[in-house]
Amino acid sequence: MTRLAICPGSFDPITYGHLDIIERGARIFDHVIIVVFNNQSKSPLFSVEERFKLIKQSTEHLENVSVDSSGELLIDYATQKNAQAVLRGLRAVSDFEYEMQITSMNRKLNENIETLFMMTNNQYSFLSSSIVKEVAKYKANVSDLVPKPVEEALNKKF
Q1: DSSP state of 79
Q2: Is residue 46 helix, strand or coil?
Q3: In the annotation, is 47 catalytic?
Q4: What is the number of domains present in the chain?
Q5: What cofactor does its activity depend on (predicted)?
């Protein structure tokens, strides 16, 4: 049986913090599917299609990672793909409260899919897509925060 994990998020845009979690997850699982979800409570800078492309370019070095997008519930998507786990990154204790609520609901909906939390590397503990967009808007250098394709896409947007 293939050990499959779903790594969900809005990834607007993908950062080195996200990649840290994805790369480490790819060492644990046989296959990781990064799934772009369109969070209705956020106003994205990049379209789902743009995010999909940027993630694909940023993860092409990972043979056991693929990219998808979905508009359905995460747990329904994971069930359809026969995933064993949902892979989530944590930066700080404040992330845990939010993630715990989501995990509890997912567990209620399907108790067979586990959620695996990974602490991001300390060098990325401050990093979020929101903060990257904010500093990029002011033309600050983001090359050490995001992969090259994302840096170029941010420069075009701003």
Answers
A1: H
A2: coil
A3: no
A4: 1
A5: Mg(2+)
